[in-house]
Design a protein that fits this description.
Number of helices of chain A: 1
Strand order of the largest sheet of chain B: 1-2-3
Helix content of chain A: 10-25%
Order of helices and strands of chain B: HHHHHHHHHHHHHEEE
Distance between the termini of chain A: 52 Å
Order of helices and strands of chain A: HEEEEEEE
Largest sheet of chain A: 5 strands, antiparallel
Radius of gyration of chain A: 14 Å
Number of strands of chain B: 3
Largest sheet of chain B: 3 strands, antiparallel
Largest interface: A-B, 41 and 55 residues
Helix content of chain B: 55-70%
Number of strands of chain A: 7
Number of helices of chain B: 13
Oligomer: heterodimer
Strand content of chain B: 5-15%
Strand content of chain A: 35-45%
Shape of chain A: globular
Chain lengths: 116, 275
């Protein structure tokens, strides 16, 4: 299997790359496998440019996915292992299920409202 | 009734002007929208109309109410608790004389405690305040005074009991009762990923469900003790070495999670790179 990223997956990768990997190219990313767990999704990736990264778990700090029907929203981390992208781990917060359907969503984080 | 007549009635009733404070999906993304919403909050009738619309299923209203209840008001409560727990305020004499160490709750007079919408926003504000106050180990008396001032005496009376429970060390039994049945999907997501290196912990705890309960208990304890790093929406920080908790002698990192209503809602966990 080699599929393009969904719009959600692409946006999560874009935000993660912008914050952690300056100059990272997204145009070579493909999905090799998706595992919808019922409480999130593991999206396994391959990178045509074989860009080298430092092992670890990455995300965009304090940002989260506000998706219709998902109480409390969802978070994500991007796992890097053996200096290569491994997967995106999208997860609900707490005892909340997600059927893997990407309903309307928005990336949130920080607060735009003025404080009292 | 003709549509035009309905619009006239809505105008007379002061229906909220959603375009002023949100985009078409109910998101508040600009400072201008934030200011307009702040103006709306000063008008009790508009607040109640907003909540009524949300109850009636208006998606924009529902989204805005959710933002107010889950983010804006709890965050304001937390910030207030931070303000009154700064070091000088922990000295009783200073606290009483300072003029600012004891919150003056009059600033929320615009939220009518006897109206459904106003009462819900007051409750959201107090929950944020209480959560942070307990993390900062503020005296129960200060918290109860706040509760009386913000949500009213009748609510405070019943809440004292739960406050006592929350103030005490939360036992596994309490966690288990709260957890109810743990979603097997969550267990699968957390524990069936070899890279998370959780097999030894699961064995030590006697199974995935028991391990989850222990992790939940340790995470909530770390939250109460102020050992978790989180952002403004309660999103746990995601950095190497941050938000590592000890569970049955094993280190576990909360690499994804969110604090909601004083409890850690676990997103994902791992022991990779830990002892």
């Amino acid at each position: 299997m080699s599929e393009p990223l969904t719009p959600l997956e692409y946006d999560l990768m874009r935000l993660t790359a912008e914050e952690n990997w300056p100059g990272f190219r997204l145009d070579g990313l493909k999905v090799t496998k998706r595992d919808n767990t019922g409480a999130g999704r593991y999206t396994y990736l391959e990178d045509a440019h074989a860009q080298q990264l430092v092992d670890g778990d990455y995300s965009a700090q304090y940002r989260w996915v506000d998706m219709d029907g998902i109480v409390n929203g969802m978070g994500w981390i991007v796992a890097v292992s053996d200096r290569k992208l491994l997967y995106i781990d999208i997860h609900t917060f707490g005892n909340i299920t997600w059927d893997g359907v990407e309903r309307p969503w928005r990336i949130r984080g920080g607060v735009a409202l003025p404080r009292t | 009734m003709p549509l035009r007549a309905v619009h006239v009635l809505l105008l007379l009733a002061g229906a909220p002007n959603y375009d002023a404070f949100s985009d078409r999906d109910g998101n508040i993304t600009t400072e201008r929208q934030g200011r307009a919403l702040f103006q709306l909050l000063q008008d009790s009738g508009q607040v109640e109309a907003l909540f009524a619309d949300a109850e009636a299923g208006n998606p924009r209203a529902k989204k805005i109410v959710r933002e107010l209840e889950s983010s804006y008001f709890p965050d304001t409560g937390r910030e207030l608790a931070d303000l009154v727990s700064r070091p000088p305020c922990l000295l009783p004499a200073v606290r009483e004389l300072s003029g600012w160490c004891v919150p003056n709750w009059a600033f929320i007079d615009f939220l009518k405690a006897d109206k459904p919408g106003g009462a819900r926003l007051r409750k959201a504000l107090f929950q944020g305040f209480e959560e942070r106050a307990r993390e900062r180990h503020l005296e129960n008396q200060l918290i109860l005074s706040a509760m009386n001032a913000v949500v009213g005496v009748s609510v405070a009376a019943s809440a004292i009991r739960s406050a006592e429970v929350a103030g005490a060390s939360q036992s596994s039994v309490a966690v288990r009762e709260e957890a109810g049945s743990i979603d097997p999907n969550k267990l699968h997501h957390l524990f069936d990923k070899p890279r998370h290196l959780l097999d030894d912990l699961v064995r030590a705890c006697g199974g995935q469900e028991a391990a989850f309960l222990k992790i939940q208990e340790a995470a909530n304890a770390a939250l109460r003790e102020g050992r978790l790093v989180m952002g403004p929406d309660g999103i746990l920080a995601r950095k190497t070495g941050v938000n590592v908790i000890e569970v049955e002698g094993f280190q576990v990192q909360l690499i994804g999670g969110r604090v909601v209503n004083g409890k850690v809602e676990i997103g994902t966990i791992s022991r990779e790179g830990l002892r």
